[in-house]
Design brief:
The protein is mainly β. Helices cover about 5% and strands about 60% of the residues. It is built from one helix and nine strands; from the N terminus they run H-E-E-E-E-E-E-E-E-E. The protein has an eight-stranded antiparallel β-barrel. The longest helix is centred in the first third of the chain and has 9 residues, at about 25-30.
């Protein structure tokens, strides 16, 4: 005798909520996202410098021009520790049309304790407004600090907006 095998068909449902598929809005956003070049130059002028027990707080007004943003202005606020070499802080850049980029900053002064000399500020975009609302990216401001003329810098970086 031969044993008969019975094959039973069992219906099952697959939960679509567990799949990670982009929505049509996300796909459209990726297709329209563009890379904005931050190559350009500018000047930072010190408006507040407050020495303290643990370091020094510095706030600069900035203005400049990049290929991707055009003309912009803004503010950078940094706190330098007791070594007067390394600083961290926040900033904001505003385009001529009012769109903004919020920045997280990390700075290095190459001449500690002297208000002039070379320096670099690394930035990471943390958020944006207007056409830059979904912006993400990073870059640097590299330049020379002059006691009389501020911080003249060259900017490099890219933002996906």
């Amino acid at each position: 005798m031969s044993a008969k095998r019975s094959r039973a068909l069992r219906a099952a449902f697959e939960g679509l909520e567990r799949r990670e598929t982009p929505s049509s809005h996300a796909v459209a956003a990726l297709q329209t996202a563009q890379v904005v070049s931050l190559q350009g130059s500018g000047t930072a002028v010190n408006i507040i410098s407050t020495p303290g027990v643990n370091g020094q707080a510095v706030t600069d007004w900035i203005f400049g021009k990049t290929k991707g943003l055009g003309n912009y202005s803004g503010q950078l606020s940094l706190f330098y520790g007791l070594d007067h070499i390394h600083g961290t802080g926040r900033g904001v850049i505003t385009k001529a049309n009012g769109d903004q980029l919020a920045l997280s900053l990390s700075a290095t002064a190459h001449t500690p304790g002297v208000p002039r000399g070379p320096g670099v500020i690394h930035f990471t975009v943390t958020s944006g407004t207007g056409a830059l609302a979904a912006a993400a990216g990073s870059g640097t401001l590299t330049g020379h600090v002059s006691l009389l003329n501020g911080f003249h810098y060259v900017s490099h970086g890219k933002v996906r907006a």
